[in-house]
Known about the structure:
By secondary structure, this protein is mainly beta. The chain has one helix spanning 49-54; strands at residues 3-14, 19-29, 40-46.
Amino acid sequence: MTEKIWKVEKTKYCEHVGHEVEIENEVVYPAENLPDQPPRIVAHRCSNALECNMLEKAACALCGTNPDLDPV
């Protein structure tokens, strides 16, 4: 059975909110009967995305509000 886990890629300072945020990747590990396949990254997110979406100003691609700014 496959396993999906959110792993922290890096911690960085976000100028939009004025404090440190974590950039996370959703990693999918293969089933036990498929051992020679590497894990895959299927999604990215920011630990502060909900708070950024509540602000009136567009934030970044990880929040889904500004595709022109990719902080990764």
